[in-house]
């Protein structure tokens, strides 16, 4: 039996001040040369948020996996990713009666949060788990007929470098993308995890 073709992964990197990025930018740099990854720096490509819808839709057609790579801003994404969703995920392209362009593609968010993981619990400072706070992305993926996976997350991002947690996290991200591209991650099982970090550790 022949092995399936590697999945092609589109990573949409969004950080409005990349010169200050201690987590997202190193992850972007780590994946940019992987042969199965296309990395797009949205703020660099669209500094005025004038997004080229046709270009972005074609990128989506050409890839099997879409990843939002970003810091957590106000329990959501930086502004350009919301603008990207508003413009690119058009009716009858991404959803609607004829909107099947994204059907069966995989989507997840790779994000970093300043607070510790314990703060993202019902009795914690932020009151809700990270996955719960990111439900709008899950529902967007659902509407677009995509396979949603929980976030790949680094908590306590403000001290990750000094605590020497960045490099292991970066290596785990590379491991995750390789596993998804090579069809080695059980997507159904991963979909039920709180984070993709947990799913990866359980499966590989």
Report the major sheet. Answer: 6 strands, parallel
Report the total helices.
Answer: 9
CATH class placement: Alpha Beta
Oligomer: single chain
The CATH H-level superfamily is Flavodoxin domain
What labels describe this entry?
single chain; 204 residues; alpha/beta; Rossmann fold; six-stranded parallel beta sheet; 9 helices; 36% helix
Q: How would you sum up this structure, described in words?
A:
The chain has helices spanning 24-31, 42-45, 53-62, 79-88, 130-133, 135-143, 166-181, 187-190, 196-203; strands at 9-13, 37-41, 65-71, 106-112, 147-148, 152-154. By secondary structure, the chain is of the alpha/beta class. Strand 1 (9-13), helix 1 and strand 2 (37-41) form a beta-alpha-beta unit. It is globular.
What is the strand and helix layout of this fold?
Layout: E1 9-13, H1 24-31, E2 37-41, H2 42-45, H3 53-62, E3 65-71, H4 79-88, E4 106-112, H5 130-133, H6 135-143, E5 147-148, E6 152-154, H7 166-181, H8 187-190, H9 196-203
Parallel strand pairs: 1-2, 1-3, 3-4, 4-5, 4-6
Short note summarizing the structure:
It contains 9 helices and 6 strands. The mean pLDDT is 94. It is 36% helix and 14% strand.
């Amino acid at each position: 039996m022949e092995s399936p073709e590697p999945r092609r992964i589109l990573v949409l990197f969004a950080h409005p001040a990349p010169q200050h990025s201690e987590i997202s930018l190193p992850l972007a740099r780590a994946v940019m040369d992987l042969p199965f990854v296309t990395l797009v720096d949205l703020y660099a490509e669209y500094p005025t948020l004038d997004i080229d819808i046709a270009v972005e839709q074609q990128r989506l057609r050409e890839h099997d996996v879409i990843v939002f790579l970003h810091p957590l801003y106000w329990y959501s994404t930086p502004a350009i990713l919301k603008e990207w969703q508003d413009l690119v995920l058009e009716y009858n392209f991404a959803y609607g009666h004829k909107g099947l362009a994204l059907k069966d593609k995989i989507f997840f968010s790779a994000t970093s949060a300043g607070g510790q993981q314990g703060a993202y619990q019902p009795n914690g400072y932020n009151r809700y788990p990270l996955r719960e706070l990111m439900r709008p992305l899950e529902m967007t993926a659902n509407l677009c007929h995509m396979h949603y996976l929980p976030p790949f997350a680094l908590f306590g991002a403000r001290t990750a470098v000094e605590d020497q947690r960045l490099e292991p996290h970066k290596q785990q991200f590379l491991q995750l993308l390789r596993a998804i591209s090579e069809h080695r991650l059980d997507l159904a099982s991963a979909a039920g995890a709180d984070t993709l970090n947990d799913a990866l550790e359980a499966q590989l």
